Automatic annotation (TrEMBL):
FMN binds at G17, A18, S19, S44, S95, M96, K97, T98, R130. Pfam families: Flavoprotein. This is Flavin prenyltransferase UbiX. Residues 9-178 form the Flavoprotein domain. The gene is ubiX. It comes from Claveliimonas monacensis. Coiled coil: none annotated. Belongs to the UbiX/PAD1 family. GO terms for molecular function: flavin prenyltransferase activity. It catalyses: dimethylallyl phosphate + FMNH2 = prenylated FMNH2 + phosphate. Signal peptide: none annotated.
Length: 195
């Protein structure tokens, strides 16, 4: 009798050209720590430029945290199809350009096509929407997306109730909130329990 192969649940994790790459790194580390999940990473060119500006590392270091990596131009890759099984998709950080592309169905690269597929298959799509201040155009697009089944908009907002002692504590808390919709409970995540 052969042992049944245990398949991990895939989360497509994309990064686009907005500030917040340290949160991406933390999300990938949290997913890697959970035995039931694996990550499929897609980084836009703008995300790579942001990474080189925000962190003292190269894209290869971030890519090593993922189980699979695709180029955004690989429009025929697995995540472009609804038959490619995933637990959903996380875009962190998610630029307003990406929000606009998703909202309008303009799927001209693998990130936008994977998001489009995630919506049509009604899987969880989590957007770490990153911009400030938000224009009326941004708000309209985010509002339209918020009405779609499975779409969650979780801006990377700082919180203080968990009494962070350093920047890494804040990054970890935000990352834990972003992976929670997929059923991942990050170690050390402190939920609000009242005053």
């Amino acid at each position: 009798m052969q042992d049944k192969v245990i398949r991990k649940k895939k989360i497509v994790v994309a990064a686009t050209g907005a500030s917040g790459i340290p949160i991406l790194k933390e999300c990938l580390q949290i997913i890697r720590q959970d035995q039931e999940y694996e990550s499929v990473l897609i980084m836009s060119r703008s995300a790579v430029l942001t990474l080189e500006h925000e962190m003292d590392c190269k894209k290869e270091e971030i890519e090593r945290l993922a189980d699979q990596v695709y180029d955004p131009e690989e429009i025929g890759a697995g995540p472009a199809s609804g038959s490619y099984r995933t637990a959903g998709m996380l875009i962190v950080p998610c630029s307003m350009k990406t929000v606009a592309g998703i909202c309008s169905g303009y799927a001209d690269n693998l990130i936008l096509r994977a998001a489009d597929v995630t919506i049509k298959e009604q899987r969880p799509l989590v957007l770490a929407a990153r911009e400030t201040p938000l224009s009326p155009v941004h708000l309209r697009n985010l509002y339209e997306l918020s009405k779609m089944p499975g779409v969650r908009i979780i801006p990377p907002m700082l919180t203080f109730y968990q009494k962070p002692e350093c920047m890494q504590d804040m990054i970890r808390h935000i990352a834990a909130k972003l992976v929670e919709p997929f059923g991942i409970e990050a170690e050390g995540y402190r939920r609000w329990e009242g005053i």
